Amino acid sequence: MTSDCDKLRRVHSSSNEDVEALLRLLHQTETELAATKVALEHKSQELVHALAAQREIEAELHQQRDWRDADRRKDEFLATLAHELRNPLAPIRQAALISKAPGATDAQKRWSHDVIDRQVQHMSLLLDDLLDISRVTRGTLALRMQSTELSSIIDTAVETARPTIDAKRHVLSVDVPSEPIQFTADPLRVAQVLSNLLTNAAKYTDPEGQIRLIAHCDGESVIIRVQDSGIGISAAALPRVFNMFSQVHSTTDRSEGGLGIGLALAQGLIELHGGTIEANSGGLGCGSEFTVRLPRRTPRAPGIAPDRPATVANTSRHRILIADDNRDSAETLAALLRLEGHEVTSVHDGPVALSAFNEIKPDVALLDIGMPGLTGYEVARKMRQSSPGASLTLIAITGWGQDVDKERAYAAGFDHHLTKPVDPRRLAELLRF
Fold first, then answer.
1. Distance in angstroms (rounded) separating the CA atoms of residues 186 and 145
2. pLDDT < 50 stretches in the chain
3. What is the pLDDT of residues 327-346, one digit of tens each?
4. C or N: which end of the chain has fewer Cβ atoms within 10 Å?
């Protein structure tokens, strides 16, 4: 009996020890699991931080690549701009030498003058495009919306692009509906877009190619397509054709110049109208197609303040004061106006302009804005203050051509605002009073 009790006590003691050992093991396991959990959470946080840091590094690298690409495109654009501005200077200089050569005939002199006029117009268009793309990018370009007819816009665009098309002996076909298509748009800006598309088609098509302009209405949209049989656009280049300051590298050797902003400007102008423009091509050697979609009705946009109209036209001569710190600009303009029979005085800074104004009492003053001593704005205000009620026409002639510049000119008392280089015909119109 005693032996059995001892056995039971030993078994019970052994069982207690096993249970205690098991409990200790469980506690140790729990402790180890808790430590492992803490370690895993720490590692997880480290991994999260590492992934976040990696994403930040990748984003920064991507941004740096974008910056480098933008910087590269900027450098390419500046090089292209320098090239495009130098190109007209060569014929201008050579034509000027021909014009003053002692042995030049009258026909040669007239031809040299035509060359200079044509090349100056080319440079003016380049600068106008730069100003327009700047306005579009900053959202400051205002459209002059009006009811217009599609065929008149197309006629204007074709007339603008015709010299480039004819120079390469292309065949242009225009397919528009016989019935008039009226819609609301800025006719000058839409014509600018279409002439850009037609000119591009002519540039990037080998001589004696085919160009088509097709227009029609689809519900509430006006759709215009410009197709060509030219060199085409690769699939890789298509997404970039509307990028600003970029040109498709595979076509640069085939082009005839340009700043690489024409299509970006076209896209901006069409989007201001609430429309879209897209490019399609079957690939290199397969031609291209650009499709413009415009709503037939668009909200009326506020127009840019127009030049104030001149008074009743006649052929009277005027006493004119010119103030410009660029002496060549002032003196050549003065010489042109004297040839028209006007009495002209030219000066080259703001204070002298005021003195001359008080002395000669001109009825027209042509003022540059960025003059030393006093700006053109200050001179205009002082002229208005010193001669209240006088019959005086003030015309700003300046290289500053943004909308805000025009508004500042009108606020200072100017009647008209002309951007350099001044079109002599436009100036002559303003002086017919």
1. 5
2. 249-255, 298-314
3. 888 888 898 899 889 999 99
4. N
304-311: Cβ within 8 A, 24+ apart: 304/142, 304/144, 304/403, 304/406, 305/406, 305/407, 305/410, 307/415, 307/416, 307/417, 307/430, 308/410, 308/415, 308/416, 310/393, 310/429, 310/430, 310/431, 310/432, 310/433, 311/433
pTM of the full predicted structure?
0.57
78-138 maps to CATH 1.10.287 = yes
Q: Which amino acid is at 301?
A: A
pLDDT value, residue 64: 83
CATH superfamily for 319-430 is: Response regulator (3.40.50.2300)
DSSP H or E segment with residue 224: strand 221-228
> Which CATH superfamily does the domain covering 150-295 fall into?
Histidine kinase-like ATPase, C-terminal domain (3.30.565.10)
Task: Please count the other Cβ atoms lying within 10 Å of the Cβ belonging to residue 387.
Answer: 13
Is the backbone peptide bond immediately before 421 cis, with ω within 30 degrees of 0? Answer: yes
Is the Cβ–Cβ distance between 252 and 222 less than 8 Å?
Answer: no
